Amino acid sequence: MIVPVILSGGTGTRLWPLSREGYPKQFWPLVSDRTMLQETASRAKGAGFAPPLVVCNEAHRFLVAEQLRAAKVEGARIILEPAGRNSAPAIAAAALLVQQEDPLAVLWLMAADASIRDVPALHAALEQAMTAAEGGRIVTFGMRPTSAETGYGYIEAGSPLPDAPGVQAIARFIEKPDARKASDLLAGGRHLWNSGMFVASAATLVAELERHAPEVLRAVKAALAGAKHDLDFVRLGAEAFRTAPAISIDYAVMEKTDRAAVVPADIGWSDLGSWDSMWDASPKEAGGNVTHGPVELVESEGCYVRSEGILTGVVGLKDMVVVTTEDAVLVIPRERAQDVKLLVERLRAAGRKEATEHRRIYRPWGHYEGLIQGDRFQVKKISVRPGQKLSLQKHFHRAEHWVVVNGTAVVQRDADSILLRENESIYLPLGCVHRLENPGMIPLTLIEVQSGAYLGEDDIVRIEDTYGRV
After folding, report:
1. Start-to-end CA span in the chain (Å)
2. Domain named Mannose-6-phosphate isomerase type II C-terminal: which ranges (predicted)?
3. What does pTM read for this prediction?
4. What is the mean pLDDT of residues 53-70?
5. What is the mean pLDDT of residues 393-411?
């Protein structure tokens, strides 16, 4: 049995302003009408696959659960990282958990945000990798390069393995090269892009972590021993997990182990790690352009233009990226797509919330988005999914006024329970204990007007919460 392990801890900042820490690229539909997480999970459904194991940031737990539910992925378990520590601790947690149940089970480790166009070819490569994994190897998938890419690490393939057809030893790993070295690697014909997918048994992974990264394994073992199980969530012990070194599985194990192997593959893979790779992976329109959303192009060539709502017009541009969201606009030459991270770093240093947050903020009950903010007031739109409810709470610094614009609401205000329908409203004075619930079958939408001396999201005292946030 193959246990798919989906690593969903990335932030995808090179796809800013679409992908941000609060809502990274794996939760966006980038190549189809399904999100990248849903695309990834769908590749590992069917006979021979166990329900997936997803490792994600604790803040994203309800996003992951809801998107898997919407994709009809059943039986998934979700390991919650209390802090991001890179891929080695995340993989260690998955391997230890699976080992407790079946040491011989084979893990198929993959990022939640990669694009793969040829799934049958992927499954054929997986079968080759399985043979080597069952023999004690840690197998990665090496993508045959189609260009001198500087955004990927490379693998130099070695001799074929006699006991695993289609699998080769790994001669060495190569860091992301500069343009000249990338051209040389492409011309040499022996090098492959490092996809970051791995196949190995739980026992092999744990043994190699013990051998090459014992401090990682020790911290994660303690975190798993102190884990709490809540529905489909496995909450790792926070204090122990934070002591794990922040290190990738490549540095911790793959570059040191003598069990590394690679399956050369041609599966239409892209990590969608930059806007240039998004352009490359997308169907082209006239002039080699790629557009998404309300976009109009005039006399432009080779551009990637995306809008998440606002009409975006482009005239006379060539080989450019233009991305418009509700609160930010990015314009950058495609050849400099990797430099988006420099912009994000500058925004972080300046304390700009746009670096990490969207205007729409997701919560386990639905979402809210800021509309207007001024001196001592702000206006938000709140959407609550059917059957869901906010925490029972109060505020020390603000009062609120709610106006229902769609659906039905039940509002608890101190000792009273009040039913509100469309075009009805309620006032919640400062300090009152209140709760909002959607008892209906359709989403509840309301407008919230806050007023007070302090309007920060941390002015919430939760008294009771369905989602364990008290």
Report:
1. 39
2. 351-465
3. 0.90
4. 93
5. 97
Question: Are 33 and 171 members of one domain?
Answer: yes
DSSP bridge partners of 426: 402
Query: Is 395 buried (19+), middle (13-18) or exposed (0-12) by CB count in 10 A?
Result: buried
Would residue 356 count as lying in a domain?
no
CB-based burial of residue 441 (10 Å sphere; 0-12 exposed, 13-18 middle, 19+ buried)? Answer: exposed
* 16 class by beta-carbon count within 10 Å (0-12 exposed, 13-18 middle, 19+ buried): buried
- Helix orientation angle between 202-212 and 214-225, rounded to the nearest 10 degrees: 120
Domain around 196? 2-270
Residue 316 CA neighbour count, 13 Å, CB half:
0
pLDDT at 450 over 90: yes
Residues paired with residue 110 on neighbouring β-strands, in sequence order = 6
Pairing of strands 260-265, 290-292: unpaired
Q: Is the dihedral of CA 172, 337, 354, 389 positive or negative?
A: negative
Give residues with Cβ within 8 angstroms of 196, minimum separation 6: 87, 110, 111, 114, 140, 271
Q: Would the pLDDT of 353 be above 80?
A: yes
Mean of the per-residue pLDDT values of the chain:
95
| Per-residue pLDDT at 469 | 79
The SS3 of residue 355 is helix
Pairing of strands 434-437, 409-413: antiparallel
**Does 279 share its domain with 266?**
no
Q: What is the pLDDT of residue 100?
A: 95
282 and 172 housed in the same domain? no
